[in-house]
Design brief:
The chain has 343 residues and is α/β, with parallel strands linked by helices. It is 38% helix and 18% strand.
Amino acid sequence: MKRIGFLSFGHYQPVAGSRTRTARDALLQTVELAVGAEELGIDGAYVRVHHFARQQAAPFPVLAAVAARTSRIEIGTGVIDMRYENPLYMAEEAAQVDLLSGGRLQLGVSRGSPEPALDGPAAFGHVPAEGESGADMARRHTEVFRRAIAGEGVAASDPRRTGRSVALPVMPQSPGLPDRLWWGSGTRATARWAGEQGMNLMSSTLLTEDTGVPFDELQAEQIAVFRRAWAGAGHVGEPRVSVSRSVMPLVTDEDRHYFGAERGSTDQVGSLGEPGLARFGRSYVGEPDQLAEELAKDAAVRQADTLLLTVPNALGVDYNLHLLGTIARHVAPALGWSPAPRG
């Protein structure tokens, strides 16, 4: 295990027990959590993106704020639903955040997940072309975005202003950003596609297929499919792979109050309202030495180079720094991880 980061869904709700009651709370606390995580030696600060929900929506402003307050920690998304995005405007935003951060942006993109809106992308002005699905549109937007951040010309120049006819790239450009694009994959088929495309792989605690094997084994198979496709396509270098896990060490009475009832949880299989079954990964809850032993046996954690820890952001910054600190000191070292040096 080379890197450990946190993944925040950015929930906010004015309900009893929540320490993140407003959207402003969620945004400011995301920044503070990233600052504290960097001090702990954590490697990454990632936000989940959802639309039409009380969660993190537009990620680039908060990532820019994190970039301004930190100097080392990776900042990223897990994931941006590309059905919603104007890929050229997104390329401008991503490049600017990457430049502000000094090249620390890790962009997870994908088709997205089930959502409250019946057809949210259409409300944003994005409708699939004839014969195209929402997933197809997301991949098309991603292709345009990748060309744009790679510096390809995407708009014809006006000879009256430029003195020549050329294809203009979007500006600014941030060198290295194309190599830090991840595809959020929920199946072996999409993992294969991501490998063929030369993107990194981001896999979560949910796979939108079920073959009857335990979640970690299915996810490890997905990672193997991805790496074979990457190598088969002839891409240079080594791709990165991340997996997400819910890890809750029980060391205080507060920990036991919040999560003690989740001890011994198992994979869940269910429907997301789409054809086929989905498999949800278990939560890891228990004493730190027990969790270290269990995670060391997790087939997908062993195959990944980055572990993203989903955090209960509604419990506030102090609690989540306690959670991350416990994992950093008492769980992660058993996986071969060590904190990043300060400065």
